[in-house]
Amino acid sequence: MNARSMADRKLAFHPGGEVPTGELAYYDSAPEGAPGPALVLLHGYCGSSAYWQKTAPYLQSAARLIIPDLRGHGASCAPDQDVYAMEDFADDLQLLLDELQLPRPIVIGHSLGGYIALAAAERYGERLGGIGLVHSTAHADTEAAKAGRDKAVDTLVNEGIRIFVDGLVPKLFAPEHLETLAMEVEAVKEIGYRTDVNGAAATARGMKARPDRNAVLQRADLPVLLVAGTRDGVVPAERTFSAEGAHIRTCLLEGAGHMGMIESAPEEAQALRAFAASAASTTD
Questions:
Q1: pLDDT per residue as tens digits for the range 209-259
Q2: Which terminus of the chain is more exposed, N or C, with fewer CB under 10 A?
Q3: What Rg value do the Cα atoms of the chain yield, rounded?
Q4: Contact present, 181 and 173 (Cβ < 8 Å)
Q5: Around Cβ 65, how many Cβ atoms within 10 Å?
Q6: What is the dihedral of CA 80, 81, 84, 89, to 10 degrees?
Q7: Which are the contacts of 215, defined by CB distance < 8 A and separation ≥ 6?
Q8: CB-based contact 194:74 (threshold 8 Å)
Q9: 238 class by beta-carbon count within 10 Å (0-12 exposed, 13-18 middle, 19+ buried)
Q10: Its pTM surpasses 0.85
Q11: Pairing of strands 9-13, 130-134
């Protein structure tokens, strides 16, 4: 895994104004275009596009992959704002979709990325071909989770990104994988260390403020995929599988913690490939 990012391209970025103030970095597996669906993969909190490095090789023959670094993360800029709302991230995504002129892309979000996918579906679902939540939830934060966000901000502001990431990353993996996937755990820490500390704090405040979006899942006029891990101690499966319907399919990764794209890359990729093929067939 790359210590920072998969991104190989950048887009001029102008949050809140017309004048570019930075760049949004992203990876594009087929910049000249490719047959089949476009699959946009959004990483989780204090991560980067590099989170998807183990999964991407299984997907590249099935879809054009667009994998951005979210604002404040990886090689992307960190706008000077106190709060990065999920709607801000969704607007950043729309900017990227506009630039690449992607027809009905399928947006898959891990954890934080899932919150963004939901915000995007709520704001401009008609231009998407499907959404997926991977180790994520449509529920708003519980009161305990909100207190945890406040604690995260306090740690980031007063102790810095390394201390915060060192405390965060071990919780993301199934306990047994801390030893068996020790190199991957360290790589995820290295990715986290490179997160902008103010961007991480602004993102934590935005996650705390996000609303419940179960109605978006339930009423979505597009295919939905929900992926959970049996060993996820951050977002348990019942929090992910919060809605049912003919348009919703689910996948439970046996033995995976919160990092299925690393802990169970072939199995997760198989679920994403099948979903992408199915979603593309319904929007043709």
A1: 999 999 999 999 999 999 999 999 999 999 999 999 999 999 999 999 999
A2: C
A3: 17
A4: yes
A5: 23
A6: -50
A7: none
A8: yes
A9: exposed
A10: yes
A11: unpaired
